[in-house]
Amino acid sequence: MSAHWLGWLVAFPALMSLLVAACGRWPNLRESISVATAVALFAGIALFVEPVTAGARPSLTLFEVLPGVGLTFTLEPLGLLFALVASGLWSVTTIYAAGYMRGNEEHAQTRFFVCFALAISAAIGIAFSGNLLTLFIFYEMLTLSTYPLVTHHGDVESRNGGRVYLGILLTTSIGFFLPAIIITYLITGSITFDEAGLFGEAGLSVLGAGALYALFLYGTGKAALMPFHRWLPAAMVAPTPVSALLHAVAVVKAGVFIVLKLSVYVFGVQFLADTGASELMMWVAAFTVLGASLIAMTRDNLKARLAYSTVSQLSYIVLGATMASSFGILGGGMHIAMHAFAKITLFFCAGAIYTATHRKYVSELDGLGYAMPITFTAFFIASVSLIGIPPMGGIWSKWYLMEGAADSGHTAIIMVLALSSLLNIVYLLEIPTRAFFHNPRPDTPRNWHEAPWACVIPLSITATGCIVWFFYPLPFLKLLAPWAP
Q1: Topology in the membrane (predicted)?
Q2: pTM for the structure as a whole
Q3: d(Cα 352, Cα 336) in Å, to the nearest integer?
Q4: Residues 329, 233 within the same domain
Q5: Which structural domain range is residue 57 located in?
């Protein structure tokens, strides 16, 4: 495949958003174009799997602003993995969004699908970034394109949530990420991603390396490390398909993907291991894993509970990066995929429950499993995958993360991961338990049933994916082969 295709693949969803906007008066055509665009994007990205797995690193520079500094796209295994997950799940999310938006008679549906396409375009730009400048540009584009989605309802609560969302993400990126890029350029003379890292010969002190690493990770606000995590629960005011986009398809996955990419291609795994520069942020991630899980246990609002679950689960991937171990990178990369399928299923289920019953609190779900067996079975499957129990795909990422902790000598992190799994059981399995084993509330109508098929089919597909990836994790392992044992 020619490297010129990289530019077209990044631009394709944005260009098609113009056609989506032009078809706003014909909803069926508008949504058909959205789904077709998603499928075509995934197919185009998939064509690069074989050459990248074989060792090719296609690269395209559109223009330069300084010698060696320009808008550059380069495809490598981590970026390809993120691009495949984002584009693949965009297809089912678009189908789900059509059913949800119509079922709830949401306004401004055309604007919704246009912004959705722009967000995916930005996510693919992040995945294909060949240097820190390109990464920063598309990171900001993703923030700005998702802001109208977060504030979609237009009420006071949505506007307040949008201000928190935009305020934290822009403050961290401009205040931390951008200075970190400038410092990196001044020290190394380069901001181009390198498989050997950029700091090997720079003579950077341990303290300086640790401070710069912390600046990068906190600058990546989309990774939702505490205390810069509040934007994520605040964004739950958005429609459920947006929550799925935020938590599984694009935004948070972009954040943790960037953490992995910075660790591998800017600092270098060996440099982090030799200097211990990532040690502090590893414990910040461990605190976030447990702290967010404890908060999730206290939330009765279903989407809020899932939001704090996401904050916790994202830090699994940050842990994988900060362990400074090949096993950790492998586990973090696997968790990008496994968490994506499980978490998008959980949010699809939450949206289906709201569409069918207009209930959004955990305490209101008693006995609903009899009316919505498919939805709550899918919720159970995805929950078990996040917990890390066979035969669900989530076991693989947790296995390699624990291997990484053992390999790097951080045995306490194994205990953090194990305790987090126990907390996951408490706050996730309560939902299907209430649905299937509690008596229905007295005010539950007898004629309630599953949400529209456009909601139920996507959640069934993604739940099935949680099982399939347990038995067939090979596609992800092949992509992540550079970090395999």
Answers
A1: Multi-pass membrane protein
A2: 0.94
A3: 24
A4: no
A5: 1-277
